Amino acid sequence: MKNTLKKNQVWLALRINDLFPPSMANDIYVLMDINSGYLFGNLLLNTVNIAPKEENIEALFRSARQMVKKWPDKLIMPEHSIAENAFLTIAEKNGISFGTSPLSDLSKIVAPLKQTFSSIFG
């Protein structure tokens, strides 16, 4: 099946910790373009299981928008994320549609991220 998404049409916000056994001492959130797999940036928190502050999410979004000069049509997160409400708020502020999906449905998209971060965190 051919991918019908255009570059920068849908972004994914993901807590990297959700891809690994619960042993990480920090939470890491990433923002990426689903079609290209381009990673816009990340938020490294000195806590675990606490949602990032909205101002930090907003700064991440602004940085991504500066790179691509437009907002995506949609932002997707894995369902049941502790940061869902914070990301939803920022998406709504910027007119971005928001949705969630089971992490298992995103497995092909996040596989390269998991591989990259496994080499870093073992």
Describe the structure.
The structure is a single chain. Strand 4 (74-78), helix 2 and strand 5 (97-101) form a beta-alpha-beta unit. This protein has 3 helices and 5 strands, in the order βββαβαβα. Strands 3-2-1-4-5 form a 5-stranded mixed beta sheet, covered by helices on one side. The model has no long low-confidence stretch (mean pLDDT 86). The protein has one domain (10-121): 2-Layer Sandwich (Nucleotidyltransferase, domain 5). With 122 residues, the protein is an alpha/beta fold. It has helices spanning 54-68, 84-93, 107-121; strands at residues 10-15, 27-33, 39-45, 74-78, 97-101. The chain is globular.
What characteristics describe this protein?
122 residues; alpha/beta; Nucleotidyltransferase, domain 5; 5-stranded mixed sheet; 5 strands; 33% helix; 25% strand; globular
